[in-house]
Structure formats: C-alpha cells, structure tokens
Amino acid sequence: MNQPAHSKVKRIEGVLSPVVTPFRKDYAPDAERFVKHCKWLLKSGCAGLAVFGTNSEANSMSVAEKRQLLEALVAGGVPAASLMPGTGHCALSDSIEMTRAAVELGCGGVLMLPPFYYKGVSDEGLYRTFAEVIERVGDERLQLYLYHIPPVAQVGITLGLIERLLKKYPASIAGVKDSSGDWNNTKAMLDAFAKSGFDVFAGSEVFLLDNMRGGGKGCITATGNINPGPIDQVYRNWKTADADKLQAGITATRKIVQKQPMIPALKAAIAHFGNDPQWTTCRPPLIELTGDQEKQLISELKAAGFSMPGL
Amino acid sequence: MNQPAHSKVKRIEGVLSPVVTPFRKDYAPDAERFVKHCKWLLKSGCAGLAVFGTNSEANSMSVAEKRQLLEALVAGGVPAASLMPGTGHCALSDSIEMTRAAVELGCGGVLMLPPFYYKGVSDEGLYRTFAEVIERVGDERLQLYLYHIPPVAQVGITLGLIERLLKKYPASIAGVKDSSGDWNNTKAMLDAFAKSGFDVFAGSEVFLLDNMRGGGKGCITATGNINPGPIDQVYRNWKTADADKLQAGITATRKIVQKQPMIPALKAAIAHFGNDPQWTTCRPPLIELTGDQEKQLISELKAAGFSMPGL
Predict the structure, then answer these.
(1) What is this structure's pTM?
(2) Is A240 on the interface with B (CB under 8 A)?
(3) What is the ipTM metric for this complex?
C-alpha cells in the first residue's frame, strides 16, 4: 500500500477524555450511562472522546462489548468524528477487528496500544503489528494514534518505530498519546515529528501547557472525565498571560485525584457529583475505593471548590 | 455456590507441553499442523497439552481463533481429557467465554492467567476475577489451574490468593503452574497446599525433579514441544537412582534452546527436524529467529545428539 504524503482529514485537537466505562452491578457495560457521560463531556470542554483507553477499563472488556458500546454512542447522537477509541489489543486479530469497526463507524481516529503481553519485543515485531493493522483495514480514513504508556503496558513506542511507520504510512499515522510521564520523551517526540504533521498529545494535563508551547495538539487525560472545563481553558488560552495560572489550577485538582487509585477515584467523583452511586462499580481486577479513600477524595475536592456543572 | 471439599475428577499428571501454534504465511492459525503436532506430542511423552499458553502465542490470538483451534483438536481425535487450554485474558468476559468453551468440550482442565494489563492490582481484585469465572461457568467439571508467570504477566498469584480461592472453591481450584523461575516460590506452594490436593506443576523442566521430590505433579514446559520423551523419562523415573543423571540431560538441552528467544527457537527446531519451513512463522509482535540464531540452535542441538523421533 502506497500512501499520499498527507491525510486530508481534519483531525481532533484539544482536550480528550479517556472516558471511564460505567458497569452495572453484574459488571455488564452500561450503555445508557456511557452515552450520557460522553454527551456531558462534549458539552463541558472535551473536543474528543478517547473511549476505551486505560482509564476506561478497556482491556477488561471483550471486543464485542466495546463494539456494542461504540455503536450505542453513535446511535445515541455522539458525533463519530469526535471519537478516538482505543483499538490496540494483545491479539493482532482483535486489533484489526476493532480498528476496522471504528473506521467503518466514521470515528475521527483510533488510539492504539502496542501488543503488551510479551515483554522485550523488537521494534520490528511492533512495526509488523501496526503495519498489518493498517494494511488489513485498508481504509484511507484511518487516523492512527500510537499509544505510549510504558508504566502500564510495559511495551513502549520508540522514536525509531514512529519514524519508520511515518515514512511508510504518512497518511494513516496521525500522532501519539505520550503517557510515559516523562516530559523529556514528549519533547523528543515533538522535536522530531510535530513539524511533519504528527500530532502529539500529552497523556496528562500536567504537561498540557508545555505540550502546546512545544507544538503539540492538546492532551488526553484521565481527569478530563471530571474536570474538562478548566482543562479546556488551558488549551484555549495557552498563548495568554493567564496560561500559567490556569495550568496551576488544573494541576492542583489532578494532585488531589491522583492521591487515590485513579480509575475508581474518577468513578467515585462522578457517582458523588452526579448523585448516581452505581457509577462506583469497577470490573475486576479493579476494585472501588474504600470508604476512607472516597471520603478523603470528595472532601478535598470540595475544599478546593471543585464542581461538575451540569452533570 | 457451595462446593464439595474435593473434586472427583481424575486430574492430568506428568509432562505437559504449552503447545506452540503454527501460523500460515498470512498469520492465520493453521489447524492442520496444530492437530498433527499435538498428536506427536501425546505419543512422544506428553501426558497433557497446555495449549494456548505463553509459548503458544495465545495472547496474540482472539477468543474466536482459539475456540476454533480447540474444536479442531477434539474433532481431529485429540482426547479432550488431555487438554489444559489457557483461558485467562485481560477481559473478564473473554476469560468466562473461553473457560466455558473448554469445559463444554470436556477439557481436563484450564490454565488461567490473571488479568495482566493493570499492574499492582489487589488480591481482592484478582480473587473477584477468578471467583466470577468459576461462578459464571458454574460447572462442576471445571478444573482450574492458576498460572503464575510474573516475568511476563507482571501480575502474580500470591499464596494468600490461593488459600482464599481453595477455601471457597476446593473442587474447582486444581493447582498451579509456577513459571516464576524461583524454586523457593514453588517450594512454598508445595509446602502450603500440595497436601490438600492442590497440584503444583513446575513451569520449567529444570525444576522437574525437585518438584516431584517436593510433592508436585509434573511440569508444563516450553521445551516439552521438542523434547517430550526425555522429559517424560525424568517424570517416570524420579524415584530411581538414575533420576539426577536424567535430569542433567534435559537441563542441558534446555540450556541450548534458551540461548535463543524461546518461542521462535521452538518453532525453528520443529521446522528443521520436521522438515517443514512454514513452522518458523510467528505472529507479530514476535518474529522468527535470524539466520545466525537458527544456525547456532540447530548445530548445537545436533552436536548434543538431539532428535525428534517420529516427527
């Protein structure tokens, strides 16, 4: 497959939330609550929705469950162009199926983990993985964002791998989410590739301002689930004199949340501020916050003046 | 669900091979070669087949692909009672589906990885995972072996978790494969649980003799794919005066193989000694050996007098 040098597709920029997934008491995915939360996020500051990310417990769900949720979103009126679902699995066949489903639904992009079971794999093996997905999906609408999150996946995306993929598939390789937590790595990606139309998203709002100043396109961040408005304000005002002050505000909120295990903490906040206790359920192997953790989280958020308007 | 104190099922004991999976040039699983290799293993020393293990590239395949291969084995005449397929996935729903399929086909057991995407998860979360699978499958034929392989999965099975699961599900929790590579851990599992009908399998034949002497039931080992006969001789003769000498022989063969990346090395050996080059294909992210690696492997095996009779 030979690709044109650039894609003609308008790409998502700004703040994206890796949307947490609501479950029922029996751990079944809850499409109704999911659609409702996605709509709240889009009206509250999110430019896009990175559904099925790490914070979505995506890897705790089957491909079939995720396809059903994705279809429910589109059927429920969430614009497909705003969606950047996670489609990377350990199994090549699952990654192909999920990526194809996302493209066929018209999703604005996909965010793809490398296969993460085998550790210490070669860049050649990872190149073959991404190349195989691109070739098999074989659709020029595909906008593939690489997902670099070595603290969890343990398998990362090197600069050399990006360079090789960009050279072969310039119209499909759209960018990266860098969740390394290492600003030097994000900066290296920006310096090497931002000018060639490769969109770098910080994996946490803590680096949002730095990322925008370095030529990045926004952030995809866990706390986007509960604090999208103020994070979006940093994105919108990054060139203004207020930017550093706005950044300090969202960083402070993040610090409260990340004192607790992140995913159950986000769910606890939505449950509390949305007055909907069912939201606290996590699918095994994750578990809900303890009573004490939840109490600390909510009281600290309230003390900081935090709110979720319109939830 | 309340369980009787013990299972009435006759369990697999001896040498099991985590069977490598053959792929075609287009990376599709090759059921024909798979059935053939499984039959060779059973006639060559393996008491059972731990298909869909780490060495099987199981996590590089979808649930649907694995179900098809499992059905092909049974249809092809491989006794279901000899099968101990891997059924643990990141997604709870995938683990339930695969475990249920294995039990319904009459498999002798299942070997279950913990969910391995999220790191640092609690024993409570892992307990809920295994309990949910056992309850949802809800079949008294289920013989569940826990798969402890922290070097790859990064998420392990603690003694406390085993104790809690054994107490609640004594008829379903059948044993463990310990691939920690740490004999002290295997010994701790033997000392704590072997007497209560919990079958401990060493994850490498290097520990086979020690495991038998400690009250274990055999081993489930990568090199069982190519050297099942001599490994089985250690199992059969562990009480004899020859045992240490036999053990030294299989340990020496293992050391030759593990100089190379294990999975492509096993496939290269099968390709060479079975005169079937297509066997070398690995599914991404794994890749085949380089020419030099393959040359070294085969020449060292030949120099050691290694053979695969009847392949």
Answers:
(1) 0.97
(2) no
(3) 0.96
